[in-house]
Design brief:
Pfam families: YqaJ
Shape: globular
Number of helices: 3
Radius of gyration: 15 Å
Organism: Oedothorax gibbosus
Strand content: 35-45%
Low-confidence stretches: none
Mean pLDDT: 90
Order of helices and strands: EEEEEHEEHEEH
Helix content: 10-25%
Structural class: alpha+beta
Number of strands: 9
Protein name: YqaJ viral recombinase domain-containing protein
Largest sheet: 5 strands, mixed
Amino acid sequence: MEKHFNFNVSTAGFFINPEYPQFGASPDGIVECDCCGEGCLEIKCPFCIRDCTKEQLYDKENCMECINGQFSLKRTHAYYYQVQALLHIVNRQYCDFVLWTNNTMLTERISKDDDFWRQNVPIAT
């Protein structure tokens, strides 16, 4: 597990970026530490996988995929689109994405993807 210095999670409200006034975002939190700066926090607790263990998630059709033993949010899933929108609207460089079930918790730090945003923002407007 990575160590962070002066790590803090604070509540977040509703953000509107003047560059994209047609969009709004409300992350589950703002994370901050001395070593990584500020990022967003997005937590998902899907009911359909509420009782899955980490091992069972390998077999489930859900938002995550396992690549080389590491779980990762599928880049084609709606949650990934949501995370990229958060990052661009809130203007942060990373999002700590958390998938929680009653039996396990998976986390992934997702970086801002400017190319993805440029390709998809015209579709959403």
